[in-house]
Design goal:
Blueprint: H1 9-24, H2 31-44, H3 51-66, E1 70-74, H4 76-93, E2 96-99, H5 106-118, E3 132-134, E4 144-146, E5 155-159, H6 163-171, E6 175-179, H7 186-190, E7 193-195, H8 199-213, H9 218-227, H10 230-245
Parallel strand pairs: 1-2, 1-5, 5-6, 6-7
Antiparallel strand pairs: 3-4
Bound molecules: ligand PTJ.
């Protein structure tokens, strides 16, 4: 039992969620390695949402609200850490949720499908009985996407995405938004909008931003999108790490 007075309580709580999900059988074998890498980068930015991350979140929400068919991609790690928050956010921005696994197995898809359904989200895509297509005619399991979801989406939110999949999505002409604590990852470097933050802080924050932006004129959202420079913002995100070490 974790004590709330422990100085690393929040971090340990996330580890506990990851361990629990692993025992439940829906995490990838390398999920803990990915989580540990995320922890290290989070430590370096002070385990707080930085200003460049907030800026990217505003533009990400504007994009999702402007999109024709926005989709939030979920994998084992994001389900373990932020399932309910993702369901709430999907409702705010009117986006679909799709199971999109790097290490896809029928068993994992089945467990994750049941989890979303059990927690009130029946319309989950990417399930075993969904119509699964291949992006860019690439016939391997790195390119799979639901016909009514990612396959036809114009804007995808891909938290904790692997670089190969991010590349395929980007090359298929979709606007890609990532949440990745590592500003140097291939996914962060190639996405259109890179939010360098922990998914557990980012999603609830984005939900509040989106509620606010929904009330704004679309022209304002379009202006925000137009003015944003991801390369510059990523540089600012990287500086946050350097600042902490000075
Ligand atoms: O469930 P699957 O099969 O789709 O597999 C999921 C993982 C995450 C195992 C898979 O996509 C993978 O191997 O990813 P990578 O290549 O390790 O990339 C994950 C990225 O997410 C890394 O850059 C981590 O720093 C980052 N990351 C880890 N935890 C978090 C995070 N970013 C935001 N929030 C986190 N909590």
């Amino acid at each position: 039992m974790l004590s709330k007075s422990h100085p690393r309580y929040d971090s340990l709580l996330l580890r506990e969620k990851i361990v629990k999900a692993s025992k439940e059988g829906y995490l990838a074998e390398s999920a803990m390695i990915a989580h540990g890498r995320g922890e290290a980068f989070d430590y370096l930015i002070g385990e707080k949402t930085t200003y460049p991350a907030k800026r990217a979140m505003y533009v990400a929400c504007a994009n999702l609200l402007l999109a024709e068919n926005p989709v939030i991609s979920v994998n084992g790690n994001t389900t373990a850490l932020a399932r309910d928050e993702i369901i709430d956010f999907s409702k705010t921005v009117d986006a679909k949720i799709e199971i999109n696994l790097f290490y896809r197995t029928d068993e994992r898809v089945k467990i994750i499908t049941e989890l979303y359904k059990k927690h009130g989200y029946e319309e989950i895509l990417g399930t075993l009985d969904d119509d699964i297509k291949h992006l860019n005619k690439i016939k391997n399991n790195r390119s799979t996407a639901s016909k009514t979801g990612i396959y036809t989406s114009d804007c995808v939110l891909i938290p904790l995405e692997d670089g190969d999949r991010a590349e395929i999505l980007k090359n298929s002409g979709k606007k890609t938004i990532t949440i990745d604590l590592n500003p140097l990852s291939r996914t962060s470097q190639m996405s259109d909008i890179s939010i360098v933050d922990n998914v557990v802080r980012a999603i609830p924050f984005m939900n509040e931003i989106a509620k606010d932006l929904k009330t704004q004129d679309k022209k304002i959202l379009m202006e925000m999108v137009k003015e944003y420079n991801n390369e510059e913002n990523l540089k600012q995100s990287l500086k946050q790490i350097k600042l902490k070490s000075e």
